[in-house]
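Worked example (supplementary).
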Amino acid sequence: MAVQIDRPPGPGQSEQADPAVAEKLSDPRWAWAAYQPDASRPWNLARAAHLHRRAAFGATWGRLQQTLSDGPQPAVGKLLRPKADTAAFNRKYDEYETSAAAVDALRAWWLRRIIQTPHPLMEKMTLFWHSHFATNAAKVKNARLMQRNIQLLRSQALKSFRSMLEGIRRDPAMLLWLGADASRKALPNESFARTLMETFTLGPGRYTKKDVREAARAFTGWFVLRGRLRYIPREHDAGVKQILGQKGSFTGNDVVRIVLEQPATARTLVRKLYRWLICETEQPTTRLITPLAESFARDYDILKLIETMLRSNLFFSPLAYRRRIKCPVEFALGIIKGLEGVVSTTQLARDLANLGQNLYHPPTENGWTGGRHWINSATLTGRHNLALALLSSSGPYANKLNPWPLAKKHGSSTPESAMKLLLDLFLQTDLDPKVYDTLLKTARAQNGLVGGSDQEIVRRSAHAIITLPEFHLA
Amino acid sequence: MFCNNRPRTSVVSEKLAAILLLAAFALPTTMAAQALPPAAQWIPKDAVISLELSRPKALLDLLTGKKATTAITASPIYQRQVSTPKFEELLNLIRFLEATLETDWRTGLAKLTGGGITLAVCPQDIVLLIVDAEDEQMLQRLHEIFLSIARSEAEKKGQPDSVASTQYKDITAWTFDGKEAHAIIGKRLVIANRPEGLKAVLELRDKAKNETMASNPAYQAAKQEAGPDAVATAFANLKPLMQIPGIARLFEEQPKNPLAALIFAGIIESLRDSSRLALALHLEDGTLILRASADGKTVGPASPAAFALPKKPGDGVFPNLSVPRRIAAMSLYRDLHQFYAAKDDLFPERTSGLIFFENMMGIFFSGRDLTTEVLAETRPEVRLVAAEQKYDPAIGTPQTKLPAFAVIFRLRNAEQFDIVVEEAWQKAVGLINFTRGQQAMPGLIIDRPIHNDTKFTVAYFSIVDIEDKTKLDQRFNFRPALATPGDYLILSSTDGLAQDLIDALNREMERPVKPLAKTHSMVEVDGGQLASILQTNHQTLVRGDMIKKGSTQEDAESGIDMLIGLVKCLERARLSIGTHRGLTKARLEIKLNLH
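After joint prediction of all chains, the assembly is encoded as:
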């Protein structure tokens, strides 16, 4: 059995109240500098698991141990640039997806891809962009177009935001979803131009209605006909337009260039990524965001931006630790990855939809709101039931996830030691010591009692752990 | 507790099934030379289900004969399994048993089960298995072997002896794991899933015959119906079974689905009225024939389900139509006019889907009343056919290859009604095209070609602008067609199947066939063709399995191969259901392909 953690507490509890740490974190130079462990901020299982919750969808026990042994910066490096042949893996899954005649099957293949990918950060970011460039299949009604939409997001998820935006503006699924599948000179369609400025780049209040109208003129001539993007030159308004202070006979490409030149675009995206990767409970100060936004605006290199965030002192600080509510995909995949199984993703996609995250069907142009919106009495009960179903020996996920053999594989010999392992795997040091002790006592008390086999005891323990409030936090 | 020295754990749980069948064959018994009564006399009277294989050898000859064995060992699934350690372990065990018992496995199995096998399910979840061997010595030797194996397995694992025995009157009862219990009485092996079950059997030996299942009049009637030549018989006491919530719901609820009400008419009603279900398996010229009968009365002429009852003595379904690459076919005797006229009784819950259907029919048939002016135009002959498609290379091949399917009606006044149907059909195609057009999707093009002097209508998607014709969309599985040869009306998902059906119906019109009197439903499945379409869609099925079950690709392939292998073993199956002397009768014929 591998490294055990000191208990209690973890970074969320020990350093949180430290005023010196808080002061340092407000300084962008220190906040974005690469984290180096020291006595007050040790590299431990809690931080390793934090990295995998944010930059992946959780991790196996073996992977956590490897990450601990690698140290923080090499571990981040592995997540950013894994040695495995991700391209070959994605080619194989792209081929699998071509057999999916309906979007339901695409949802299932994506979840399976997330479970098995050698590059989980790429899928994590694809999920982020899927909410940012929200496109709902219910309106698109074409599985192939939706497949290409997600492929586009995946292909650029860690590359260039500029390329992604250029791809999105030519993406038939996006145009169909926004009702922008026919934009004529006589009647420019404003919906893409508005969404581009409001949601994809600048953010609310940073453009005028006139900017939208003029940009819409620049996008005229583009149509989606029989599932294909077509440009009809005679329908393009070649006249002079004035957009965000610039004047010219602009085309769609020019509009993309102009919005990317606005400092607000980089700031909006950095803030959004900050919320995704670092913290969603507190808004970052402009001072904190500015250096990252300025750097991002130079080349819109997503990987570079994410690398800075993931390697930073801020990322490994109490300000980031367990400061996000897991979306349903993160919640379920965290269990599945941790327990090293592959489940029916057709069923999982349905269950996640019931929890509010229907892949390929973000609810609005703004994607999923996230945060506290993920949790209400219905979804909390739903998460509880899903956890139970995932661990069950019957039903749609029957025996696909079995914590007892897993615990034995990692050296546990009793339900009590299995409970310790599962606590370390899923929650690390984040439990109130009283809760921790109560859980251990319960497992100990169940051991050897009539309450069922060891397997059942460990299943029940695992369920108790993954339905604790702490597990819902990323 | 029935057995003393009850073991704590099962040592041989994985091999239990094999052991249970082969185990208790070595007990010394005082009844060795005594003739045993039929096994049914050792089964409690309140047994809910019983299955008797009275001639197991006949089945063994069929299923384990050289032809079948050659077919199985040549199959890819067998070839894949044969290299696995578990399979190797099983083969080693069989080889060991063959050597020890000085016989080959076929002969051994025949000698050990030749007297018959009886399985019974009794109240309180008790399951009994009674196996009558022909060779008592072999039975005893085998039991000893398994006792030794169980003990040495326990020793190897450092566990206490898992085998336990106890004496009950003159009989020694054994258990391997403290849960099952078994005993050998003469040539007979009795196994129960619980000690109480075995105890009940042993006590029945001394009781009067009228307390056993053999004295149950319903069982006796079922046996009599099966006849002496039956290879196997099964009997189910339906009354207790219908107390099971799931089954009760199935029989009590009004059908919500009109299609289910249409297809299963008469069958559900008859079973609901039955107290027993009897099945008899016969083997005739290599074909397995399963006859089922229930004692529930068939529905009366006043019943809402009477639309499925042949009206006159000679009435019944027509034989299924034969077309190339046929996968399955169904022939139904259903008076659609009477069916829809009784809709308020048959499915009182009017769903929005049904109302939509009626509204659309009103549009398609220009305001004609669906019951009296449309369905009344059809005769009570409904035939359905599903066949594998043959794709035109000039058009291309869809990635997922769906079977073509068609429904065939017979019209009362074809000359007047043909044109009404044609109009409705073209309206439907027009509506589809309009709806697809609203979504900027390609529509169907209508054509009216002629096939063997029959003009028919086909609607198809154009392939213009499609570059890769090897992976066409699913819509290219459909070329909906309407044809009206003679009195018949064909609605087919493809023109290819429509043409084949025109030919089949022309043949039938040239040589009229008689209906199968008193049969109201008949289904046929062609195993080879079904296996063929499964094989054609192998990759799609494997991928579907991966995401539906969370399987690895290898496991999914293995499962699908297994399914295809099993389907290949079925040459054809035919199920016909009808009435005979006021009772519902079913006949299932299964021709296995073991060549």
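Two points are worth noting when inspecting this output. Residues 178 and 464 of chain A are 43 Å apart (CA to CA). Residues 1-12 of chain A have pLDDT under 50 and may be disordered.
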